[in-house]
Design goal:
CATH architecture of the largest domain: 3-Layer(aba) Sandwich
Low-confidence stretches: none
EC number: 6.3.5.4
Helix content: 40-55%
Number of domains: 2
Pathway: Amino-acid biosynthesis; L-asparagine biosynthesis; L-asparagine from L-aspartate (L-Gln route): step 1/1
Domain Glutamine amidotransferase type-2: 2-219
Protein name: asparagine synthase (glutamine-hydrolyzing)
Shape: globular
CATH class of the largest domain: Alpha Beta
Pfam families: Asn_synthase, GATase_7
Strand content: 15-25%
Mean pLDDT: 94
Number of helices: 24
């Protein structure tokens, strides 16, 4: 994995802008600690930071190869990602006469573009964000993987386009102000920590949407979707479906275990991570690669304070031990205490360039930092719940009928946190309703489906296109901030396409959430683990965390220079701080973000406004 950035400018000679492109590139150093490179021409400048995973010696970027039919012209690429079908593509390109200088997938991707042009993306199986400059035609082609695992932001103005893996690369350009407007604030206060697809939050920033590509030249910018979910009748019975799901998952896990550097798995003892670990262990045994290393995260004294509830029915620790011993993995338990978690809130903002999922982001950042000491690549279970319907809101009538995003049901409470002036400007209920209507309007309906199946298809679409990107963005940003590559097998587009059309009654085989996934893994996992009730990424239950973030936030609010003061209803926030239990009964976002996370989110917002010197334009 890597960090990429670039600058296209029709009105300036970029060969004279080496210092600027180097500064933009330097902001991505944590994403690529192993090497750096820049390339400049009159109207295009590229920057790249490299995390070496495949062919460390020869895969330097930006990489240059000749165009197919033009003498003395080149294609230049900066690329962040992994192609899991690179061996097959390499063989196909060799039949077309290409000869490879490296064994890395960067060269495969670039020569695929040379041979097939923009439609090359339809051949790729992987996670990626890349930009290719074609010197003969002076045009830029950019693309992002189908599910949006790898990020790609851009900012366009007259005669100029800037892009980067993270907003910080674009913000490093001297002509780009750190500004946010009313719509950006609505994303933060109403939608956040999720984002509307394509929205960059920063003023005039956008994100290339998952499954989209872009062409930019002197005629302007054209963005198109090369992939989207398509609805069709499902033709397999339950047994055939389970067999197909199992085969697809096994294939994608084995593809993603290929690496020239150490690979590990993240293990929570739940269905999703246990399945990936079991498949990895089986592959390692067959390939003679030794024991799989596994990692888990927990918090000091969490066992003393844990209280089960619908969103988190039981603790992970006993199940982690169960699976590690069953699979004979080399296990690394990682544990953090409250002070570390509080202190990491600011580092998580710097990693994301925005406020995020509070302590859930912070703990993941710390977790990834520890993993990086032992491994460079990790396998993680994100996306299984969105794809197979595992979250509680898939199974609750009130959530299914809520006519809003089911992970964001506390709109009234959140609106009440805003200052009257900002609340009037943002119109939180209207903004959320518009974004929800936009999402529902995109759903590819299947003619002839009854109302119950249509409702579940819509719920699935919301989760895959609106909630899942939040977790993928979090995983990318927190892991890459420490130079760790995390692969997510459940995001294989072949698996997603297949599961999308499985009828709900088969998805819930055995009357269980993710029932068809469980059925596909029979014989792979022990029965008790296979049918363990879902438990999400762990958060701290230590009351000291609430005390710490509440105290810090109140201190900030006592500071007359606090940039939050004009934006929030301080009276209401102080009331919640005085009675935190009033905000802890219902998550205000997702499954886990309740009272303590609300105070932590506001702390992150305060730090973000201060550190980035954000100018608010209303």
């Amino acid at each position: 994995m890597c960090g990429i950035t670039g600058w296209i400018d029709w009105n300036n000679d970029l060969t004279k802008q080496a210092d600027t492109i180097e500064k933009m590139t330097e902001t991505l150093e944590l994403r690529g600690p192993d090497a750096a490179g820049t390339w400049l021409s009159r109207h295009c400048a590229f920057g790249h930071r490299r995390l070496s995973v495949m062919d460390p010696a020869n895969g330097a970027q930006p990489m240059i190869r000749p165009t197919k039919n033009a003498d003395h012209h080149d294609c230049v690429v900066v690329y962040n990602g992994e192609l899991y079908n690179a061996p097959e593509l390499r063989k196909e390109l060799e039949t077309h006469g290409y000869r490879f200088r490296t064994t890395c997938d960067t060269e495969v991707l670039l020569l695929a573009y040379v041979e097939w042009g923009p439609v090359c993306v339809e051949k790729f199986n992987g996670i990626f964000a890349f930009a290719i400059w074609q010197t003969d035609e002076e045009k830029l082609f950019m693309a992002r993987d189908r599910l949006g695992v790898k990020p790609l932001f851009y900012r366009r103005e007259e005669g100029r386009l800037l892009f980067g893996s993270e907003p910080k690369a674009i913000l490093a350009h001297p002509d780009v102000p750190a500004e946010v407007d009313a719509e950006g604030l609505a994303e933060l206060f109403v939608i956040g920590p999720a984002r509307t697809p394509g929205h960059g939050v920063w003023r005039d920033f956008f994100e290339l949407k998952p499954g989209h590509c872009m062409l930019y030249d002197r005629d302007g910018m054209r963005t198109t979707a090369y992939w989207q979910l398509e609805s069709a009748p499902h033709e397999h019975d339950e047994a055939e479906t389970a067999e197909r799901v199992g085969a697809l998952l096994k294939d994608t896990v084995e593809r993603q275990l290929v690496s020239d550097v150490p690979v590990c798995t993240l293990l929570s003892g739940g269905l999703d991570s246990s399945a990936l670990t079991a498949l990895a262990v089986d592959y390692y045994e067959r390939e003679g690669q030794g024991n799989v290393h596994t990692f888990s995260v927990d918090y000091v004294d969490n066992d003393k304070h844990f209280k089960s509830h619908d969103f988190q029915p039981n603790a992970d620790a006993p199940w982690i031990t169960r699976m590690s011993q069953h699979l004979n993995t080399v296990h690394h338990p990682v544990q953090f205490d409250t002070p570390e978690l509080v202190d990491a809130l600011e580092a998580a903002v710097l990693a994301k360039d925005l406020p995020g999922m509070a302590d859930i982001d912070a703990s993941l950042l710390l977790f990834c930092r520890e993993i990086k000491k032992e491994a460079t690549v990790a396998i993680s279970g994100e996306a299984a719940d969105e794809i197979f319907g595992g979250y509680p809101w898939f199974h609750r009538e009130e959530a299914l009928k809520a006519e809003t995003f089911p992970w964001s049901l506390a709109t009234g409470m959140r609106a009440g946190l805003l200052s009257p002036e900002l609340r009037e400007k943002l119109q939180p209920h209207v903004y959320l309703a518009d974004r929800y209507a936009q999402a529902i309007g995109e759903v590819p309906e299947l003619p002839g489906e009854d109302e119950a199946r249509r409702r579940m298809r819509r719920m699935s679409y919301l989760n895959v296109t609106r909630f899942m990107p939040t977790l993928l963005d979090r995983k990318d940003r927190m892991s890459m901030a420490v130079g760790l590559e995390v692969r997510v097998p459940y995001c294989d587009h072949r698996l997603v396409e297949y599961v999308w059309n499985i009828p709900w009654e088969i998805k819930t085989a055995g009357s269980r959430e993710k029932g068809i996934l469980r059925k596909s893994l029979e014989g792979v996992l022990p029965h008790d683990v296979l049918y363990r009730k879902k438990s999400p990424y762990p958060k701290t239950h230590n009351p000291n965390y609430l005390i710490a973030v509440r105290s810090r936030l109140l201190d900030r609010l006592d500071d007359p220079t606090c940039p939050l003061l004009p934006l929030i209803n301080t009276t209401r926030v102080r009331e919640l701080a005085a009675n935190p239990d009033s905000s802890s009964h219902l998550p205000w976002f997702g499954q886990l973000m309740s009272g303590p996370q609300l105070f932590a989110y506001l702390l992150q917002m305060d730090f973000w406004l201060r550190h980035y010197k954000v100018r608010i334009v209303l």
